[in-house]
Amino acid sequence: MSRSVRFFAVAVLAACASLLPAEDKKPAAPPADDGFKPMFDGKTLDGWANVNCHPDTFFVKNNEIVTTGEPTGFLRTAKQYENFVMEFDWMHVEKTKMANSGLFVWGDPLPGVGTPYTRGIEVQVLINYAPKDGWATSHGDIFSIHGARCKPDRVHPTNPKMERCLPSENRVKGGGEWNHYKVTANDGAIKLEVNGKEVSGVSKCTPRKGYLALESEGAECHFKNIKIKELPSTNPKPEEIAKVWEGHTSMFTGLDLKGWKTEKDAWKVAGGVLKANGKTDLVSEKKYGNVELIFDWKVPAKSESVQCELSLGGVSKTIIGGPGAKPGAWRRDTIRWDEARGTFPISFKPSAGLEIMNVFVRELKEEKK
Question: Per residue in 206-217, pLDDT tens?
């Protein structure tokens, strides 16, 4: 058969195929549903809650969630998760100095007492850190924090009692390069894959259901392509579930006195803590009616007594540490005020060396009679 004849035959067949009824043409198969759902729409922080950071600490740019790293704190999911597979890409900007961040798994909605971190299991997002004694790495450590518990897949090399799994190999790329994490959490166990290979894991975690959170800790870090696939429940017991958010929101940015009024230099902000430095009250700009107030506070270790004075609903209150209260130790108090007659600011009275952090408020709705 000549070349011209073959070309004519192919052209005829193609023309005939184009005349077939639409139902005889096989459409391209739709992409298979792998079960993953995006956790980030690329434009907003919808579905996430800034827990204890400045409003500018976490923001969206170029389809990425970016944290400035200041102050230390976290951005958590609006809902709790139990069993799941989560994947995301992350990149630190810093190329030479240590740069830190992390993913908190199964965390509480608010920070622990006297700390900006939540109780939970941390999957480390860290570069440029290599302590000589080898207690930690920059390649995907997993560990319990602030009251959570876990069992490392491997015994810690320098402290057998430490609940920290060090990775089996170094696979994290340095500053300015993207890394891919795959976190599989199921029935209280967590496995981490770094750039395509499993390197670390823990099991017997408590809690094993809770919030997920991105951490801000001193360095600019970028996150993108964040997605999750939820797995069937393994029915955790109530004591294995993190606390549920009850509507409290932060009154303190961790960086400045935004939202508060006082005289110049009467109160200082340092390290995410409010420090009394004068004789003037720290007064909220917003006025409140009935509220529930949560805050952490401590007085200097050499103080003769443990007490803090504040005003709620226009009424002064004095909190006195009970038996066993130790000066110099952080404590948390929750005060509910439902007898307000109007709206009033919340204020703290200064005392020598008083420090306050983790200030959260929940406005109480009037019960229908």
Answer: 999 999 999 999
Dihedral angle over CA of 131, 213, 44, 254, nearest 10 = -70
Structure tokens at 124: 């480390």
The reported pTM is 0.90
**Closest by Cα among 100, 108, 44, 101 to 76:** 108
Which CATH code, of 2.30.330.10, 2.60.120.560, 3.40.50.1460, 2.40.30.200, is assigned to 37-243?
2.60.120.560
Q: What residue spans define the domains of the chain?
A: 37-243, 250-363
Cα–Cα dist 76/93, whole Å:
22
Tell me the CA end-to-end span of the chain in Å, nearest whole number: 95
Whether residue 186 contacts residue 231, with contact meaning beta carbons closer than 8 Å, is answered with yes
Cβ-contact 308, 351 below 8 angstroms:
yes
Helix (H, G, I), strand (E, B) or coil at 23: helix
